[in-house]
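Q: I have three molecules that I believe assemble together. Could you output structure tokens for the complex as a whole instead of separate predictions?
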Amino acid sequence: MNDLVVKADQVAKVFGQGEGQVVALENISLQIERGEFISLIGPSGCGKSTLLRLVGDLLSPTSGSLEVNGKTPKQARLDRDYGIVFQKATLLDWRTVTKNVELPLEIMNTDDREATISDMLELVQLDEFADHYPWQLSGGMQQRVAIARALAFKPALLLMDEPFGALDEMTRELMQQEVLRIWDETETTIVFVTHSIPEAVFLSTRVVVMSSRPGRISDVIRTVLPHPRDEDTRDSQQYYERITEVREALRRDEGSS
Amino acid sequence: MTERDHEIGETNETGFASAFEGDVPVGTRTPSAIPHRLKGLVPAGIAFFAVIAVWEGAIRLFDVQAFVLPAPSVIVGRFIETSDVIWSVGFNTMIEALAGLIAGTILGVAVAFGTIRWVPLREGLMPFAIAANSIPIIALAPIANGMFSITSPVPKMVVVAIVVFFPVMLNTARGLLDVDADEVELMRSYAATPREVMWRVRVPHALPYFFSAMKVVSVLSITAAIVAEYFGGSQEVLGQYILNRASLLVFPDAWAGILVASILGVALYGFVLLAERLVMPWHVSFRATDAS
Amino acid sequence: MASFVVLWEGYKLVWNSFGWIEPVRPDNVVMPHTWDMILELFKPVRRGGQLLIVDLSARSFWTLREALVGFIIGGLIGFGLGVLFVRSGLAERAFMPYVVGSQTVPILAIAPMVVVWGGQLAFPQWVSVSVIAAYLTFFPVAINTLRGLRSPDPNAIELMRSYAAKPKEVLWKLQFPAALPYIFTALKISATASVVGALIGELPAGFQSGLGRALLTFSQQFAVRSTKLYSTVIICAIVGILFVGFITWLEHRVMKETRRVESS
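A: Yes, here they are, computed for all three components at once.
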């Protein structure tokens, strides 16, 4: 049996009680194998960010079972099995790039931080900016620091919540390339939330299509595109076919909901 | 747009209260802000009376002398006995405070509007305002006494006006200035005149800031008037009354005077709240943490 | 500064040439020349006494000391309350009404009484005054600390949770640095308030030291020599500015190159 990084079985998440309650997610069953790149895509309100947070134990499921790295999400969090990147880089203003990347290492009391930090900064190609402050960097650069920080303690899993949403299209495409390169070099499993169909198809091994009201998984599409992916991939026939497939899956749900 | 639904009062296993206390997920928000707030006052009210009761009890129990700490019953007693005196001096003080409050507010708002119209005014005024904020304004009280007749209420009014002016001016200016660039551009795209921009965009935006300042200065005006009175002048005012009684060690009377001052302050504050409710029914700001 | 001098002298000039006396009489008693105010500092306080500036400097130290003690104590209490309220929602709900309610007591108005009262209880004057300064300081510091501690992005809090960080770590690594700008804003306000509290506390009869006493005394000598009062007021202003300036300097040292999160 393959090594499962995430195993969700009939997971549901409900907010509030009684009449005003909101069913954010229901019937979520999903298995993510080690080394995969999974995208969660869907309209607003489909619960993709909620699902991401359930995996990260930043929220607790109302029912169903959820295993992360073979443990409860809570244990996985306590064991620091995952790193997380948000849409806003969320760097600490008062720390330099280096100190920002060091933050998790400080908390986890790791040894040999200097070497790790410089490795990470090299990985995201920001080693020259080690002593800069966040406000001195562009949005894309800040996100790269956030990625370096997320990977600094070498987690098995990387959760990304629309990390490139605030970036312009050109930077976005560059960052997508970067993420793929990093994924390749570190062999981390990645769960990626996005709004953009081309982005989901370009990056992932599988695209999880979700629909809203209530949030659920409506389809899982294998991208079956060759690796490594690059500009040529963006021009290929299969790329466009997958995009169409995902788009239709999304439309189908819009019609039915 | 990412939906971010936070759980209320969620604590993680380390017992750290959720930073999102008060954040209610969309869909479960109920419009019960006001009754909830009144409910919140009940424990505070109960505790207040409890404190008074303990205070009274402790005084009686330990037979504490009046000059150490008067019992609430004694204070209230004197409050009632001297009510004609303290209310008449209180009235005089109230006049000073009110006059200064009105003058300072009008001036503050006017200057705030001015800083929007004339940029040089803004640039020149800001460092001055910052410096002025650092100086103990109350030190001007004796000067005002000298400049205007010491026995007249005018110097006290001047001091109150100065004390009131700065917070009102700074807050109102900030509110007028702080509008979204987008909103201003929108108005420009409608070829709106500067005056229309001012009234449709800036003024509504500035109102919460203005009222925030008014809440602070309304209470402050009474205090400022009383403190200004400490520097001398007519005896027919609350400040002098309190000072005299305290110097003569007749503390219950002095506390009674303080009680009057508090009541006056709360009354002014209440007026501001009322005005706020009337002017801005859509935005009742009840956050205590918003003191400027 | 310069503009103020210009306005002052200008007023005197214009009003004098027209013979106006309202609203303020521009003679040399009520409105002495600005340079006379400065010169007065270098004259003796009384016949054969020390120079005014020496006397006032000693008084300034006295007043500043009282203000400082109260400021520090109030600041620590305020900070402590802020941290307590952020950690425990229960504590906040229970005690916040009192914290806010404490401000309805016009402590400045009560100041002289507190000092007299303290004297009766055999507390030295400076203790009572420090209590007043502390009272004035703790509220803005508490409120602003609370606001600052709550200011970080929810994402940043989630980030710390993802690291399974302990509450103490979240406090020191995330919330406290984020709160610093807010805290300094409150400290600047409180600095001035402490000085005011100290000045007022010195007013009751029977206390001879401090700037507040000087203000009162010279105010009574206004008709004879008004420049003394004006000079004293200038010194008061300088004391206030120095105190706030010191806090501002401290703020810049502590926050270095980091960009200010919120301008005061």
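A: One point stands out. Chain C has one domain: 32-255.
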